[in-house]
Design brief:
It is a single chain. This protein is α/β, with parallel strands linked by helices. Helix content is 48%, strand content 10%. The protein has 3 domains: 281 residues, Rossmann fold (3-Layer(aba) Sandwich), CATH 3.40.50; 191 residues, Rossmann fold; 35 residues. The strands form 2 sheets. Strands 1-2-11-10-8-9 form a 6-stranded mixed β-sheet, with helices on both faces. Strands 4-3-5-6-7 form a 5-stranded parallel β-sheet, sandwiched between helices.
């Protein structure tokens, strides 16, 4: 209930907000490079370690004075109490009247007393399935051992496990062949199962509601494929379910001992740490999955216990709010310089945009300023040859996060990759002046009139703000720290804006309308364009 939370305080009504507006006006007219010239201690003041992570935010359009006011804002809106409410199991998901305790899955918070026995039983069953899978003790319909696995999910039931599987495979070879299917498009399923032996394939069906259209469609495809390949409809041994709705799973043919419980207080986009993370454990083993959880748990402890001034998720959250609200920066590019993190931007898209893409506050009022930024990105150096040109000379306002994992030992290839990241951040800040361009063109022997004609096209304004986040080492536990840091930063922004970062009613509306179309229901409530397109679709045979 909302009355279990500290009273809502509108940030724009605090003195700190007025101070931040004044500071924003100054920074909109200021170059970040000038701030470095004015303050020799700037890098130290705006850098922060946390566990294996190191954040350098000195290239952002802020300073210690801005940070101090942001911290004052955080205290004014009672963020420390909000953090404690989150970990204590208060109903921070206030629209659905439930806690958000994904941290409990990794030991960073307590499981609600009423659910402890059920949660412990699920953990035991989860570990047993993983162990049996790796020992070759799980058998399919024909008696062969199951040593391939395919995850059927979408959204949080896909992106978190997909990201972790990809990130860890870059560090070490998977012990088992694990693949993931998410798209409703049949080609995704067909491509994913290509080359697999049906008799040796286990399907994990992950859906919180067990009513997700995409996942259920792929479940039927999996059953049809197994029946066709094995010559039998007795395929139950090839399936496990992960869901908050066991009754629905049983109604669809899953035996109780093949169902892993997903607690209702774990949101989909925060569910990697629960049984939804089963594909990670199946691929790399139970111990590696525990290491992933342990890293996230360390960040939980940091977030809960460190003062705001030295709290990494708080810094990340406040910096995102400063850019989005005070500097009016609508675009946030996330650039992981690690191919294993190629799915990190997509994971963060869902985390931030589904969590904080809201407009209604706890008191029922509308948010009078932008909320979530538009998150996008690609792994470096691929992005350098795709869209970095817009960073250098485009006209859109944006901010950038460079994520740079540094394994131990750091080989030559990894060192070169990190150097590219640091060079990009530095070049985007510095830019190239008209005079510098002229001097460079003169060395090419160009005539003065040609130099003047080309100089505007070569000039790079610079002053592009960015953060660089380095890791000390790179393994499953560090990955856990990284993901948990961004999870908590999302909560920080949501708390200050007064929105619920754990529901997604907008997404549900789209699902409702899709079901109406699929069922051939009335289209009277649709706009003329949608009715015309639906008629064209119906006529297509």
């Amino acid at each position: 209930m909302t009355d279990s939370l500290p009273p809502f305080v509108a940030p724009e009504q605090t003195p700190a907000w007025a101070e931040l507006l004044a500071l924003a006006d100054l920074w909109l007219a200021r170059r970040i490079t000038d701030a470095f010239s004015a303050d020799a201690a700037r890098v130290d003041a705006l850098s922060l370690p946390a566990g294996a992570l190191w954040l350098d935010a000195s290239k952002q359009a802020w300073d210690a004075g801005v940070l101090a006011q942001l911290l004052a804002l955080a205290r004014a809106v009672r963020l420390p109490e909000g953090i404690e409410a989150l970990f204590a199991g208060a109903e921070v998901n206030f629209t659905e009247r439930r806690p958000a305790l994904h941290m409990a899955c990794r030991g960073g918070a307590d499981v609600p007393p009423a659910d402890r026995e059920r949660f412990a039983a699920t953990e035991s069953r989860l570990q047993a399935f993983v162990t049996a899978f790796h020992r070759g003790e799980l058998r399919g319909a024909t008696g062969e051992r199951l040593d391939h696995a395919v995850n059927l999910g979408i959204g949080g039931s896909d992106l978190g496990p997909r990201l972790a599987c990809e990130a860890l495979s870059h560090l070490e070879a998977p012990q088992r062949n694990v693949r993931l299917v998410a798209n409703l498009d049949p080609s995704d399923f067909s491509a994913t199962i290509r080359g697999l032996e049906a008799a040796r394939t286990l399907f994990v069906v992950s859906s919180k509601s067990f009513g997700t259209a995409e996942t259920l469609a792929n479940l039927e495809r999996a059953r049809a494929w197994l029946s066709r390949e094995l010559g039998t409809h007795e395929t139950a041994a090839h399936f496990l379910a992960v869901t908050s709705n066991p009754d629905k799973a049983q109604a669809l043919g899953f035996a109780p001992d093949r169902i892993l419980w997903l607690p209702p207080w774990v949101g989909g986009r925060y569910s990697l740490w629960s049984a939804v993370g089963l594909p990670v454990a199946l691929a790399f083993g139970w111990e590696r999955f525990l290491e992933l959880r342990a890293g996230a748990r360390r960040m939980d402890q940091h977030f809960r216990t460190e003062p705001l001034e030295r709290n990494l998720p708080v810094w990340l959250g406040l910096l995102g709010l400063w850019n989005a609200n005070l500097l009016d920066v609508p675009s946030w590019a996330v650039l992981p310089y690690d191919q294993g993190l190629s799915w990190f931007p997509a994971w963060l898209q869902q985390l931030e945009m589904e969590s904080n893409g809201k407009r209604c506050r706890r008191d029922g009022s509308l948010v009078p300023y932008p909320t979530a930024a538009v998150v996008w990105g690609m792994s470096g150096t691929l992005g350098q040859h795709a869209f970095h040109q817009l960073f250098y000379q485009g006209t859109r306002r944006l901010t950038l996060d460079f994520i740079v994992p540094l394994p131990r030992p750091l080989d030559a290839g990894r060192r070169a990759l990190a150097q590219h990241a640091l060079a990009q951040a530095g070049a985007l800040l510095a830019g190239r002046t008209r005079d510098e361009v002229r001097a460079a063109l003169r060395t090419q022997g160009l005539a003065p009139e040609e130099i003047e004609a080309l100089a505007p096209h070569h000039e790079i304004p610079g002053n592009r703000p960015s953060s660089v986040l380095l890791t000390d080492g790179w393994d499953a536990s560090v990955l856990g720290e990284l993901l948990a840091a961004y999870e908590h930063a999302t909560f920080v922004r949501g708390w200050i804006w007064g929105i619920d970062p754990f529901d997604q009613y907008g997404v549900e509306l789209g699902k409702e309308l899709a079901r109406t179309l699929a069922a051939g229901g009335t289209l009277a409530g649709f706009d003329p364009s949608t009715r015309a397109l639906a008629a064209r679709l119906d006529a297509h045979r």
